[in-house]
From TrEMBL:
Gene Ontology biological process terms in this record: response to stress
Database matches in Pfam families: MarR
HTH marR-type domain sequence ranges: 1-101
GO molecular function list: DNA binding; DNA-binding transcription factor activity
Entry keyword Phosphoprotein: no
Entry keyword set: DNA-binding
Region described as Disordered: spans on this chain: 106-126
Protein name: DNA-binding transcriptional repressor MarR
SUPFAM superfamilies: Winged helix' DNA-binding domain
Length: 126
């Protein structure tokens, strides 16, 4: 599913680019692409500027199917956002900003702020 998301957003990616986006090896990405080709969601095509490479392109029917499933959800979220008062919108914005920072710190890994605190004070890690 994540592979299709990246391909739909970009229009096409090389298998190596797709591997990078998915955080997997190129061998694993090749298996994903093989499976997507097999079930008819994508095609492999020659790279437009490098004859030695290929790009993976989502088929229009698969893009249309994904959009048909996502659009009602996107519309519902838009309606919910439109119904918020200015104060509610400010609260949601503040909350999501704080959540984003939590994710950024977690993505930074052990070198992030929590690791620094536990290195300075071993009891902070408990």
């Amino acid at each position: 599913m994540k592979a299709m998301e990246h391909l739909i957003q970009e229009g096409s990616l090389s298998p190596t680019e797709l591997a990078g986006r998915l955080g997997v090896s190129t061998a694993a990405a090749t298996l994903v692409v093989d499976r997507l080709v097999e079930v008819g969601h994508v095609d492999r095509r020659p790279h437009p500027h490098d004859r030695r490479r290929v790009v993976v392109v989502p088929r229009p029917a698969s893009v249309g199917q994904a959009m048909a499933e996502l659009m009602p959800m996107i519309g519902g979220v838009a309606r919910a956002a439109d119904a918020l008062t200015d104060a509610e919108r400010a609260a949601v914005t503040r909350f999501l900003g704080e959540v984003r920072e939590v994710y950024r710190e977690a993505a930074a890994g052990p070198a992030g702020p929590a690791a620094s605190a536990s290195a300075a004070d071993p009891s902070a890690a408990r």
